Amino acid sequence: MLRASPKPIVCGCALSLVSVGAVVQHEFGITQPAVSQHLKVLRDSGLATVRPEGTRRLYAVNSEPLRELDAWLDRFRRFWTPHLEALATELARGRRGRRLASPRPKSAAQTERGKDS
Questions:
Q1: pTM of this structure
Q2: Mind listing the pLDDT tens digit of every residue in the chain (117 residues)?
Q3: Rounded distance, CA 21 to CA 35, Å?
Q4: Longest dimension (CA), the chain
Q5: Domain 7-61, CATH class in plain words
Q6: SS (H, E, C) the chain
Q7: Do residues 35 and 48 touch, judged by C-beta distance below 8 A?
Q8: What is the DSSP letter of 31?
Q9: Which class for 41: exposed (0-12), middle (13-18), buried (19 or more C-beta within 10 A)?
Q10: How many CB atoms lie within 10 A of CB 35?
Q11: How many CB atoms lie within 10 A of CB 24?
Q12: How far is residue 82's CA from residue 89's CA, in Å, rounded to a whole number?
């Protein structure tokens, strides 16, 4: 069972060929065997390719399956996009409402004026 998400690993591999050691050292607080396990899942699913280079294995994202998935998801975006936009609007309203409802700290000038009264 994988505990961490392979998504950041895919993002890291998308930029260039990446060695497992580089991923472990710079991106994640997980062990090299755990990263290797995630990369194996990505490779087995066709989302990543691997190329041996000496003692290292270099991984890269195979973008074709992601393009196919994006094309398939495109048929459904019209159903969820309006709902996600409405949710974003409601979240913004909630943040604005909380901001307006919270008492604002008095400025130094307001505090000084209050002392004179």
A1: 0.47
A2: 344 455 555 555 555 566 666 666 667 777 778 888 888 999 999 999 988 989 888 888 899 999 999 999 999 999 999 999 999 999 999 998 888 888 776 666 666 666 555
A3: 9
A4: 81
A5: mainly alpha
A6: CCCCCCHHHHHHHHHCCEEHHHHHHHCCCCCHHHHHHHHHHHHHCCCEEEEEECCEEEEEECHHHHHHHHHHHHHHHHHHHHHHHHHHHHHHHHHHHHHHHCCCCCCHHHHHHHHHC
A7: no
A8: -
A9: middle
A10: 23
A11: 17
A12: 11
Contact present, 4 and 36 (Cβ < 8 Å): no
Give me the amino acid identity at 103: P
Residues 14 and 59: beta-carbon distance below 8 Å: no
Tokens of 87: 């949710």
Give yes or no for a contact between 42 and 9, defined as CB atoms under 8 angstroms apart: yes
d(CA 89, CA 1): 37
